[in-house]
Design a protein that fits this description.
The complex is a heterodimer. Chain A contains 11 helices and 11 strands. By secondary structure, chain A is of the alpha/beta class. In chain A, strands 2-1-3-10-4-11 form a 6-stranded mixed sheet, with helices on both faces. Mean pLDDT of chain A is 87; it is low at 1-22. Chain B is of the alpha+beta class. In chain B, 56% of the residues lie in helices and 17% in strands. In chain B, helix 2 packs antiparallel against helix 3, helix 2 (9-64) packs antiparallel against helix 5 and helix 9 (372-390) runs antiparallel to helix 11. Chain B is rod-shaped, with a radius of gyration of 55 Å. The chains are: A alpha/beta, B alpha+beta. The A-B interface holds A 1-2, 130, 132, 161-162, 164-167, 171, 175, 178-180 and B 61, 65-70, 72, 76, 104, 107-109, 112-114.
Amino acid sequence: MHFYRMSCFCLLLLCAGPALAAEGLRIGLTPTFLGERPALLADWRAYLENRLGRPVAFILKDSHEETMELLRQQQIQAAWLCDCPRITMNREFNLLATPLFHGRPYYRAYLVVPQADQVTHRLLDLKDKVFAYGDPTSNAGHMNPRYELWKFGVDPDHFFRRTFLTHTHGNAIEAVAAGVADATSVNSYVWETLDQQPALTGRTRIAARSVEYGFPPFVTTHTMAPGDFRALQRALLTMAEDARGRVVLKKMNLDGFALPQPELYQPVREIVRYMDNR
Amino acid sequence: MSIPFDLSLRHKLPLWGGLLILLTALAITGGNLALTRESLKKNMLVRSEILGRSLARALSAAISLDDVWRAYEILDAPMSAETLRPGFHLESMVVLDALNRVFISTQPQRYPLQRGLATLGPEFRLLQARLEQNDGRVLALESGRVLLAIPLVVEGVPLGTLVLVHPADYYQSSFDRAVRRTAWTTLLVLLVLLPLTWFWGRRMAQPLSLLTERMGELGRRLPAPLPERIYPHDDELGRLFQVYGQMLRELADKEALERQVVKSDRLAALGRLTASMAHEINNPLGGLLTAVDTLKRHGQLDSLQAKLVPLLERGLTQIQEVVAALLVEARARSRALTRQDVDDVHILLAREARAVNWEWLNEVQDTVELPATLVRQVLINLLLNALQAAGKDGHMRARITQTALGLELEVGNDGRVIPPALMEHLFEPFTGLNEEGHGLGLWITYQIVQQLHGHIEVDSVAGWTRFRVDLPAAGSP
């Protein structure tokens, strides 16, 4: 499967590369956010094209890794990925804007268990259970639960009976709802957005909530023209000020965008540093 | 015998026909359903195997990448589709890794991840034993639930096994549907066939039972004929009815003939009796009359005797006349009949026949070798009878024809019809068609016709009474 993804990636580089610039603004997304909502994406794209006066394309990839590689190769000019330091603390990328969730630029990691499980209240209750991770670069879906276990002096690789990757928060919630996994950890924004139609989330329960982390920001390549950068940033920051923008934001379950504050991402950096030093 | 075999054919034929059709339908339906059941069982397992094989490749890749979620997604879509099907027969799918532990399943609660096969129940323990001896072939295990194990092998390396779990009665709902469909079809066919058989059976049996009823009357009286076209076909049954009709006609003819013979015999006997009696009476009567005559002419009679002798004479003369009438003697020689003799009768009776409409047809051309006096007497007797019967303003028809054999007389009238009881004794003496007359007219006519070796017949139907007389000419064959 990795081989398949890499070959697609190479093919994209070889064939599509030179044609991209002419097409306007390309924004990378992962299925973490809005991956399976094409109607919403179309609305948002139409809104941005209208505001920027140029074509906008959303590029969806299966994993953070692939999108990050596209950004590094400057195949895309902007991306909405994760809050990992490789994005937020990288000199190659500039922070563009941070989404406001419940009016603030923060999210939490939710420990999610099946509705039927009424005994689990923290990670340590999950000894010898099956745990579903999201994307390995995701803080909420991967790093945060492992970090918390380490802090309790437990090796996450030997704590669970079985772990597996689901790549997106949506899949992770589905795995718990279907009973494939006994627990997972997801971004609070994703769980609560899905909870607006609780067919899936209704079969799950939030067993624990983490501390607040800075909401994953929009980033751009550092080579992006300053005019383009400012135009895109203005478009995002003022989205909540016009009616059409608010309609799209409401569908996205966000309240708007704010100027990024790098210190928001310090806690995640600490986590990564802690994990790397082990 | 027992009751069902003694039933009337009218009931037995439809009942037997219906029963046979019912049995046939049940036998065919039963056989078909047994076949359907077998093929359903087989087909559904084949379907499962096809599904399993189509998933095997993708599952092998997921196992080799240790991608549990991917494996779940591979199983989940077809499983959801299966569940939506009406004839749902797949209970769950379980993927085992190379060590026969649960890698993933569509029912993670029932088959927890990483759990050893042996802990999943007796069926799976049995499966494990079989898997350990297996050499990469598809296994079907039927003990309680039905397990179909498809090995996941890539380039000869066993990566795991896909187990499709079916309930023990996995084919039952499909079979039930087949049963319902077949039952409806059979019912429809029966709805058409049973009334047809019923109709056909009754169609055969009804004429037969009518025939039986009529045949039962045979000893007592001649039964009525069967209705026309009661069974118009030319098979054995049809021929039976034809033969019955023919038999009936022959019986009627025979009976009529017998009656005729009896009547002729009776009349002949009567003829002989009256003839001999007439002779016996005539001899002393002649003497008596001579004696009375002598007494009248030569005897000295006192007043009382003078009053009694003529009374005696008149009585004796009446006896003589009656006896003479009874004793029809045709032997007297007479000249042959001419056309004029016939016409004379017309003229003779014209006065008396003024009150009726009389049609007269004399078709005698020349002389007929028959005694003219006797023929004229027959004709007059018949005409007088007809005249009497027709009454005022009635109709009468007389036709006298000369034929190759002799003479044919036909006299008809539209007066009252002769009742059958009277018809039997019509030609006997003192029977008489009317109150007037001595009732010897037809007797005399009959006797003359007999003595001339002729034939007389009468029919009286539909308001028309007709006498017909055939007289063979002397010298004719």
